[in-house]
Each structure stands twice: as C-alpha cells, then as structure tokens.
C-alpha cells in the first residue's frame, strides 16, 4: 500500500532549500543595489520560513546565518548605527519565535505520524496484502490513498485458492472512516468464509449481499444507506474458464497482446446491499431474499494475459479540464507477463492525468496467468466463452 502522492517527498526536499536560497538572494541583492534598498525583511523572513520545513537545529542555524549575513553586509557597506542594533535584535527575536513554532509543528507532525501509523496498522489488519503467487497466478495489488492524513479507506480486495477455483474480489464501500472499515472487515470476512463453503460463485455473491443487508439492519442515517460496488471473480480449478459477477462496479480489463478489453457484463446488477431494491433479473440479482438470479458472465483467461480490477478512484480521476481517466488507451500496448508492471503503468498514467494527486482513494488488483502452465486455449480473441448465466 502506498500513499498515492509520489511527488511529495521530492517536493519536500526541494522546499528545504528555500531558506538558504532566500538568504543568498538577500545577500546578492543588497550588494547589487549598493544598500539603496534594505534587504532586512528578506533576512528576517528566512528563519520564519525555515520553521515549518526544517528541523529545530536547521531553523536556529538559519536565524544565525541571517544575523551573520546582515552583520557582514553592514561591515562591507557602512558604519553600524543604532538602528542596526534594533534590526538585529528583532532578527534574534524572530529566530526565537521561529524555533518555538518549529517545536510546536514538530510535535503536531509526530502526533499525525502516529495517527497514520495506527491507521495503516488497522488497514493492514483488515486488508492484508495478498500473496504474490496463488496457484498458477502471479498477483499484484496497490492501495493508493488520496490524502496522506487519511490512511483508512473503503476499498478492498482479496484472493483465495479453494477447491472450487481461485476466487477474487475487489469492492468499494460507500463512505470513509471507521464505518467504512467495519463494512470492509465484514465483507472481507464474509468473502473468505463464502469462498471456503460455497461451491458456486452465485452463492458467494448471495452471501455477500446478505452480509451487506445484515450490516445495515437497525441502523439509521448514512449508515443505513451503506452499499458496496464490487467485482467477484472465479477462475476454474483447471484454469479453463473465468466467471465474473459485476455488482454496480467498473468492468475489469483483460490485457493481452497489446490490447485492453473491458469484460462488460451482459446484464447490469445493483451494488451489494441494494439487491432488495430491484424487481427483476437485471435489477436484482439472486443475492436478494426474493430469489432473483445472479448474473454471471463467462470468459477465457488466455495464457500470459492479465486481469486488471480497480475501483472508481482510478476511472473517475479527473484532469484539470474535468475529463475522466481512461485505462483502455493506457493498457493498449504490449506488456510483459507481470501484473506489477501493469499496475505501475496505470498509476503513473493516472497521476500524470490528475497532475500528481488523486481525488479519491483507489485500489488496483491484477493477476497474470502463467503462459507455460496454463491450459491451452484457442487463438480466438478473448471474450465471452459460454456467454451469460442468469
């Protein structure tokens, strides 16, 4: 799991040079103008600027350097006056104030860092990183938070190898914070249990739907309106067929031979937790108490192909003009059989699209079927193999 703001560290390193650049500019400007214009305000602002971006030692050193440069300029250009005593006394006072501000800011940053570490520990406990290998699949995942101070989100992914095949899920729970984490925890646990005990993918989806509806019973307000968009997928034990149930979520992509193919569902379905609102197979899947069908689409996962699943923090990321990010052009080029390379390419592209930041948390999950161990498949283009199950 990474932060999502990849350029923050580099930006902070550049900012550390600002106090030194300010002192150098004051010195050069004063010499160039032959003391016709006072550069004392520049010198005085240097320790104040250093307080939020440097250490306590660096802040004090900046203030000392400002005093030394000021004294040097006076010695080079004129005789010291009583006004200079007042100016340098003010500079010392500003340095002391800047040091105090630095101490307070450092304490606040430490508290924030502790909060982030706790949040990250909770996130890892609820949503541990998946194994790199599951059966014949190579697995990669990324979790990008939109805001560094909020390391807990409502996105989730999971993968399990079972006697019924390899099952995986990616989902996006409505909301953020502890309420979303509780729902994420409930869904992850329910998915793990369903993977082990439910022989059919439709039954897995039904159990997730029941769990979402049970979590909102007896609640009110925003919590009562909780739901989760999701993609639940299953790769047959012999790797010959990929079965996918899309629940109000963005369709996964199949990346192969320089093309990215969206695996769109034949019949749309409501998100998990909203199944009872529908009144037909296309509106209410068979996870609802009234017994409507769970739409499941069937595809081939060819040897060497990569299946990419993602949440709306990716496909709804906007640029400065408000245009959404499109994954298909980004992934429509040859890739090595490496899901990590595919996900890194997506993240690099979406951050360029948005100018370096994400507007919403984003989860990505990808699996690649080993080319040398996969069941041979025809040369036909990947797509629905047996069509749609309702």
TrEMBL record:
<keyword id="KW-0472">Membrane</keyword>
<keyword id="KW-0812">Transmembrane</keyword>
<feature type="transmembrane region" description="Helical">
    <location>
        <begin position="49"/>
        <end position="73"/>
    </location>
</feature>
<dbReference type="InterPro" id="IPR052016">
    <property type="entry name" value="Bact_Sigma-Reg"/>
</dbReference>
<feature type="transmembrane region" description="Helical">
    <location>
        <begin position="85"/>
        <end position="105"/>
    </location>
</feature>
<keyword id="KW-1133">Transmembrane helix</keyword>
<protein>
    <submittedName>
        <fullName>Serine/threonine-protein phosphatase</fullName>
    </submittedName>
</protein>
<feature type="transmembrane region" description="Helical">
    <location>
        <begin position="21"/>
        <end position="43"/>
    </location>
</feature>
<dbReference type="InterPro" id="IPR001932">
    <property type="entry name" value="PPM-type_phosphatase-like_dom"/>
</dbReference>
<keyword id="KW-0378">Hydrolase</keyword>
<dbReference type="InterPro" id="IPR036457">
    <property type="entry name" value="PPM-type-like_dom_sf"/>
</dbReference>
<feature type="domain" description="PPM-type phosphatase">
    <location>
        <begin position="137"/>
        <end position="369"/>
    </location>
</feature>
<dbReference type="Pfam" id="PF07228">
    <property type="entry name" value="SpoIIE"/>
</dbReference>
């Amino acid at each position: 799991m990474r932060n999502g703001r990849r350029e923050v560290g580099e930006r902070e390193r550049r900012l550390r040079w600002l106090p030194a650049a300010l002192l150098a500019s004051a010195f050069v400007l004063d010499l160039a103008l032959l003391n016709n214009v006072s550069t004392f305000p520049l010198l005085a602002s240097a320790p104040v600027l250093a307080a939020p971006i440097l250490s306590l030692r660096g802040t004090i050193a900046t203030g000392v350097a400002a005093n030394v440069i000021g004294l040097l300029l006076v010695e080079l250009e004129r005789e010291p006056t009583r006004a200079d005593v007042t100016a340098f006394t003010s500079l010392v006072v500003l340095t002391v104030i800047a040091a105090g501000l630095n101490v307070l800011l450092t304490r606040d940053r430490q508290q924030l860092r502790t909060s982030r570490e706790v949040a990250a520990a909770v996130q890892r406990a609820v949503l541990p990183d998946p194994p790199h290998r599951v059966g014949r699949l190579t697995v990669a995942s990324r979790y990008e938070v939109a805001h560094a101070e909020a390391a807990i989100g409502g996105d989730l992914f999971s993968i399990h190898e079972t006697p019924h095949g390899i099952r995986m899920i990616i989902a996006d729970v409505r909301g953020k914070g502890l309420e979303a984490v509780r729902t994420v925890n409930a869904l992850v646990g329910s998915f793990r249990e369903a993977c082990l005990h439910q022989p059919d993918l439709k039954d897995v989806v039904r159990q997730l739907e029941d769990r979402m509806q049970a979590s909102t019973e007896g609640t009110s307000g925003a919590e009562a309106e909780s739901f989760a968009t999701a993609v639940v997928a299953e790769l047959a034990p012999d790797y010959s067929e990929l079965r996918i149930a899309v629940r109000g979520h963005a369709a996964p992509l199949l990346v192969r031979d320089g093309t990215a193919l969206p695996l769109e569902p034949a019949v749309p379905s409501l998100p998990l937790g909203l199944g009872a609102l529908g009144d037909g197979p296309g509106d209410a899947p068979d996870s609802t108490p009234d017994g409507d069908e769970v739409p499941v689409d069937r595809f081939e996962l060819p040897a060497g192909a990569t299946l990419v699943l993602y949440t709306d923090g990716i496909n709804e990321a906007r640029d400065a003009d408000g245009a959404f990010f499109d994954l298909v052009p980004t992934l429509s080029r040859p890739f090595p059989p490496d899901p990590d390379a595919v996900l890194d390419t997506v993240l690099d592209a979406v951050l360029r699209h948005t100018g370096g930041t994400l507007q919403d948390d984003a989860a990505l999950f990808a699996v690649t079927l080993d080319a040398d161990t996969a069941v041979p498949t025809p040369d036909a283009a990947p797509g629905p193999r047996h069509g749609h199950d309702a």
